[in-house]
Write a structure and sequence with these properties.
- The protein is of the alpha/beta class and 265 residues long.
- It folds into three domains: 40 residues, no CATH class; 127 residues, Rossmann fold; 92 residues, Arc Repressor Mutant, subunit A, CATH 1.10.10.
- It contains nine helices and 14 strands.
- The protein has a five-stranded parallel β-sheet with strand order 4-3-5-6-7, with helices on both faces. It has a four-stranded antiparallel β-sheet with strand order 8-9-10-11, with helices on one face.
- α2 packs across α6, α7 packs across α8 and α7 crosses α9.
- The longest helix is centred in the first third of the chain and has 25 residues.
- The protein is globular, with a radius of gyration of 22 Å.
- The N terminus is likely disordered.
Length: 265
């Protein structure tokens, strides 16, 4: 009986009898699983944006070792051009850069329809609270501070990409309380008027509106909207809720003191 194994790009044909086949069957399954995982990662594209060549080289090398496709840019302006051309799944961007900084670049990328679902995280030495808040307001999904060990960065990247996968699986349009919420297009329509929301405000609104009447605890909101790897204060949620009340209507959002928030219709 003939059997084949794909290993390191080589196709091997084995001639074996039925008994000798069993010991290698588990190995074949393992190799096929590893091959499938690596192929999936190669389809995942990451755009690295930093004006320091050493950062691009080190971070790019470690992510490439995990099987991801890596594209680079050296400033915010080039990042927008590369993002339009490459349509990455994840953008890792510095804040302080020449020509255009990361904040402005992030805001511009969020306006591009084709890049609605891209995950953006800042990787920067700026660790001030106000800088992190500005990053989230600009549309970032995460904010990672330097220095960071390569293995920890890889783990954070994997967590961010899992979040993207979950979004793809849960993409849908909600109609609740006379409001249409299109998650794929990041669009909200109320009384025939389209309401524009920054990314985090939209995700917070979508979370609450997905289960009207349910009380979402602060910990759950932080985990599902910002991710449990992101360090943000409780006031961050309050600020976003206040903005949602101003734009959508105060009556929709109810505060449960000491617990969290819920959406009412």
């Amino acid at each position: 009986m003939f059997f084949c194994i794909v290993s390191s790009g080589l196709l091997l044909l084995l001639h074996c009898n039925k008994k000798s086949l069993y010991p290698i069957y588990g190995l074949i399954q393992l190799k096929c699983l590893i091959f499938a995982i690596n192929m999936k990662k190669r389809n995942t594209k990451i755009l690295l944006v930093d004006d320091e060549p050493d950062i691009l080289e080190i971070v790019g090398y470690n992510l490439a070792q995990e099987g991801y496709q890596i594209v680079t840019a050296v400033n915010g302006k080039e990042a927008i051009e590369k993002a339009k051309k490459e349509l990455p799944d994840l953008i890792i961007m510095d804040v302080m850069m020449p020509e255009m900084d990361g904040m402005e670049s992030c805001e511009n990328i969020r306006k591009i329809p084709e890049l609605n679902n891209v995950i953006i995280t800042f990787l920067t030495a700026r660790n001030e609270d106000y800088s992190q808040m500005a990053g989230f307001d600009a549309g970032a999904d995460d904010y990672i501070t330097k220095p960071i060990k390569p293995k920890l960065l890889v783990s954070k990247v994997k967590a961010l990409l899992r979040r993207l996968k979950e979004k793809d699986q849960n993409s849908e349009t909600l109609n609740v309380g006379g409001i249409e919420i299109n998650r794929e297009e990041y669009k909200i329509v109320k009384d025939d008027l389209e309401i524009a929301l920054p990314r985090k405000e939209f995700e917070l609104f979508y979370l609450l509106a997905s289960k009207p009447g349910k009380v979402f605890k602060r910990e759950e909101i932080l985990d599902k909207v910002w991710g449990n790897d992101v360090v943000v204060g409780g006031r961050t949620i309050d600020v976003h809720i206040r903005k949602l009340r101003e734009k959508i209507g105060d009556d929709f959002f109810k505060t449960i003191k000491g617990v969290g928030y819920k959406f009412e219709v």
